[in-house]
């Protein structure tokens, strides 16, 4: 898979893990920079955040933990994809990682090849040509309006009550799918298949969907509280977008 020399910031305090992942990623054409601590990662990211295409971030670091670093990076650049590494395998830990803004979560020990596949899939989803819009595109021609929510698919942009809402790539994909399939209930399993669109989708947890739904609700309906019933939970069945 071509990466066009995408640049990855690899944050982990274990030299062995950084060395192995760097080797595998460089073989696939990635440019890898390293940071052994949360403080150094934030400093490096703050100075050059526009140069990075993806972050690989360990949870357990010698100073700041990965949750704190993830939140800080997402405040600076909400769309930066973050793959979190962790030895914490409890469901509540994975959900905490997703709620902090992580786009994917891998439990240690892991296969380096699996990490490369996940990164390649994230890069493809985020930086595919459809993610961008040229100056000549007329955004209004393909805008989707649902109440106070407006999606501009060619720009992957979302506005609520004229406020820009910064969604992660996967949050946007999930919202777009639900909005373009209104009044239909989808189980977590179907959403993983249809939205995550990976031949390796078995590696994702169904609770990933719950965490993304929760974040969507928080971001959209902080501006539009009267629309909170748009994304409905049907217990034992799944989720549905309901047009009010």
Write the layout of secondary structure elements.
Elements: E1 7-11, H1 15-27, E2 31-35, H2 38-48, E3 54-58, H3 66-76, E4 82-86, H4 91-100, E5 104-107, H5 112-127, E6 144-146, E7 149-152, E8 157-160, E9 163-164, H6 169-179, H7 188-195, H8 207-221, E10 231-234, E11 238-241
Which stretches are low in confidence, meaning pLDDT under 50 for 5 or more residues running?
129-139, 199-203
Output the number of helix runs: 8
Structural class from helices and strands? alpha/beta
Strand percent estimate: 15-25%
Task: Determine the mean pLDDT.
Answer: 84
Describe this structure in words.
It contains eight helices and eleven strands. By secondary structure, it is α/β, with parallel strands linked by helices. The strands form three sheets. Strands 2-1-3-4-5 form a five-stranded parallel beta sheet, sandwiched between helices. It has a four-stranded antiparallel beta sheet with strand order 6-7-8-9, with helices on one face. Helix 3 links the parallel strand 3 and strand 4. Helix 1 packs across helix 5, helix 2 packs parallel to helix 3 and helix 6 crosses helix 8. The longest helix has 16 residues. It is globular, with a radius of gyration of 18 Å. The relative contact order is 0.11.
């Amino acid at each position: 898979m071509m990466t066009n020399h995408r640049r990855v910031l690899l944050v982990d305090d274990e030299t062995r893990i950084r060395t192995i992942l760097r080797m595998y990623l460089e073989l696939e054409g990635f440019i890898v920079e390293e940071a052994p601590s949360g403080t150094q990662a934030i400093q490096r990211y703050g100075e050059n955040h526009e140069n990075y295409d993806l972050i690989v971030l360990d949870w357990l670091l010698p100073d700041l933990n990965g949750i704190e670093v993830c939140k800080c990076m997402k405040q600076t650049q909400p769309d930066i994809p973050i793959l979190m590494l962790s030895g914490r395998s409890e469901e509540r830990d994975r959900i905490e990682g997703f709620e902090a803004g992580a786009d994917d979560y891998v439990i240690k020990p892991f296969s380096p090849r699996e990490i490369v596949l996940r990164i390649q899939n994230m890069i493809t989803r985020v930086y595919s040509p459809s993610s961008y819009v040229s100056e000549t595109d007329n955004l209004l021609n393909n805008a989707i309006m649902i109440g106070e929510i407006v999606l501009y698919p060619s720009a992957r942009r979302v506005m609520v009550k004229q406020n820009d809402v910064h969604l992660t790539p996967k949050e946007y994909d999930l919202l777009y799918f639900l909005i373009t399939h209104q009044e239909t209930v989808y189980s977590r399993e179907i959403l993983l298949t249809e939205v995550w669109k990976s031949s390796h989708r078995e590696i994702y947890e169904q609770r990933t969907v719950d965490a993304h739904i929760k974040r969507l609700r928080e971001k959209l309906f902080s501006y539009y509280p009267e629309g909170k019933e748009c994304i409905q939970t049907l217990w034992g069945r799944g989720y549905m977008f309901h047009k009010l």
